[in-house]
Write a structure and sequence with these properties.
By secondary structure, the protein is an alpha/beta fold. It has a single domain, classed as 3-Layer(aba) Sandwich (Rossmann fold), CATH 3.40.50.300. The protein is 43% helix and 9% strand. The protein has 16 helices and six strands. The strands form two sheets. Strands 4-3-5-6 form a four-stranded parallel sheet, sandwiched between helices. Helix 13 crosses helix 14. The structure holds adenosine-3'-5'-diphosphate. Adenosine-3'-5'-diphosphate (A3P) binds next to helix 4, helix 9 and helix 15. Adenosine-3'-5'-diphosphate binds next to helix 4, helix 9 and helix 15.
Amino acid sequence: MELGLFQKLVGGLKNMKHKMGVVQDIPLLQTTCDIWDKIQNFQAREDDILIASFPKAGSMWVQEIMDLILLNGDIKKSMRAPCFLKVPFIDLNAAPLPSGVEAANGMESPRIIKTHLPLQLIPPSFWEKNVKVIYVARNAKDSMVSYFYFQKMNKMLPDPGTWNEYFSKFLAGNVPWGSWFDHVIGWWRAKDKHQILFVFYEDMIEDPKREIRKISQFLGKELTEEVLDIIQHHTSFDIMKENPMANLSTLPSFVIDQSISPFIRKGKVGDWRNHFLVVQNALFDEEYMKKMKGVGLNFRNEL
Ligand code: A3P
């Protein structure tokens, strides 16, 4: 869809309500539940690439990187549309806009498709077509902080309440798309059964070029050092923050209110230290140990 048409249609979201629903015990937006059959029956294609993550793991950052990899680093082409129009979000249903499924159906291949669904809710055709998946993972503490600000400013999502209230909700998995723990564990356990590449936000911050190379090799693209440098530069925090195709500034403030918090906000590992109380940190670590014991999945809460 053209940006102009999108901007006309998006006005219809002015009076949206953010009710929550449930699918197989996972809290999802009610509008997603309303079209659940359509989402489940979505027809993947063999050359699709799925980008999956729990919210706020750095999905948009990796989407921009993937798009540029497919374009061999052509910045001009990557600026053809906002990221949310280039990469349909199959969970999303926000009438009068086309749903993510409808947007993807109308798209030429190769498609990059985004989801926040936990593994068990992924439309089966992705597995039948043996689609490559990039799963972006970020440590839980920073994910929680980032999601708190996102729920404050994204008017499609329920208000998070106070930080203290949100802390308990997040830990209990009582946020849209459910439990961070179940999400990362579910995908981690499936990674050797399907073509799934795990990309960690902390690794991307540490050495973006190394991770961009890893992603491009997984996608079967050998890029020159020069192209890798171009992609790294164009997707750096400071450039993406100013890029209207990536920073969501094309969305009106009644959908995304960036006066409350910018979408591309801090981009750091360890911002949780500015938010977690000592007692919350202890509670969190205790719960983390219980849930993640023996999983074999290691996150870095600081670099
Ligand atoms: P913070 O809120 O901690 O700053 P998602 O795209 O999955 O919604 O994730 C958003 C998070 O990724 C935000 O985290 C955002 O700032 C961060 N992010 C986006 N682009 C980035 C970039 N180029 N470099 C580092 N972090 C980035």
